[in-house]
Amino acid sequence: MKIHSNYNLIHANTFGVEAFADTFVHLENEADAIDFVQHHLDKNKPYMLIGEGSNILFTKDYQGTLMQMQNKGFELVDENPNFVWIRAAAGEIWDDFVAWSVQRKYAGAENLSKIPGTIGAAPIQNIGAYGVEFESIFNTVEAIEIASGKKQRFYLKELNFGYRDSIFKTKLKNKFIISSVILKLNKFPLFKTDYGNIQEELNKMNYENLNVALVREAISTIRASKLPDPKEFGNAGSFFKNPIVVQEKYASLKLSYPNLIAYELSNGNYKLAAGWLIDRAGLKGFTKGKVAVHKNQALIIVNLGGAKGSEILAFSEEIQQKVFDLFGVELEREVNLI
Ligand code: EPU
Description:
The chain has three domains: about 1-70, Uridine Diphospho-n-acetylenolpyruvylglucosamine Reductase, domain 2, CATH 3.30.43.10; about 75-185, Uridine Diphospho-n-acetylenolpyruvylglucosamine Reductase, domain 3; about 245-335, UDP-N-acetylenolpyruvoylglucosamine reductase, C-terminal domain (Uridine Diphospho-n-acetylenolpyruvylglucosamine Reductase, domain 1, Alpha-Beta Complex), CATH 3.90.78.10. It is built from eight helices and 19 strands. It has helices at about 30-40, 95-105, 120-125, 200-205, 210-225, 245-255, 275-280, 310-325; strands at about 1-10, 20-25, 45-50, 55, 60-70, 75-80, 85-90, 130, 130-135, 140-145, 150-155, 175-185, 245, 260-265, 270, 285-290, 290-295, 300-305, 335. Uridine-diphosphate-2(N-acetylglucosaminyl) butyric acid (EPU) binds next to helix 7.
């Protein structure tokens, strides 16, 4: 375990904003995590977990303790003729897990290629992309209760997964340190290539039989063409969620904007493409000082270099206001705010 005081977070968040945490602790394994919460953590001050910092915006210093799980490893825990169960340590990088499983020809995670963040953060956020949500390959979370240091397991039904949502963002927020996740992957791929332009990208490749490595490659290419590399321009992926509206609202918008992009949900509501709304509001590439709307994907806000978290927040509120004024639709943040 390594405990740091007055820790500069500039490299601990993919927005690349400077802020300081009173205490920052690297937990190398489960035993470290248990020892820390039982004997060292000051529970009278704020505390929370941080992964790769790829979905967080620090608008001020953190006057408490940030804990980062750094345990490592992927291990096959069970298999049958159709499936494998893999335990992945919370401190691993999500995309390293996808690469590991694709290498072994295990299927189910390939559409989630190149999503930033750690394994431990994946269930909290129920990450998703290209028609696949994390919950579809999820089996178990193994976690340590911060109050007691006791280990506990959570299964699918207990997690209340929703769109970028889980019980770890609501009832159990800040109550557990996720130490590992067990994922269930398929030995026989069920390809999902009908989302967006995956098929178009695959058609450009020369292959005889489709496999998970090809799907990963196609998705990696699409993502690289749209999404900014945080090493070049700080960002946290989609800044807003795609808003969900009732059928009447969708119908009236569709009348005024026939090109509106929306997906019908099973309950009759519609999910609108926030990127399209921001784009249609003329804000793609919109820049103010050191902050901009990404030129290739309007759902992403980028730090052009040296922006403060508070500037990014003010900029994002301006986007929300402009979209609301034009469409009467409220954009909710996807990024977590500190
Ligand atoms: N669009 C525009 N202009 C833009 C951006 C998008 O017209 O500037 C249109 C696109 O043409 C497309 C539609 O909006 O028809 C949706 O765009 P896209 O497929 O790029 O996906 P998204 O809805 O903007 C979501 C996730 C992404 C994920 C992609 C791909 C959310 C908030 N975002 O974005 O996840 O990679 O789908 O599946 O659900 C993230 O969560 O950080 C993230 C990057």
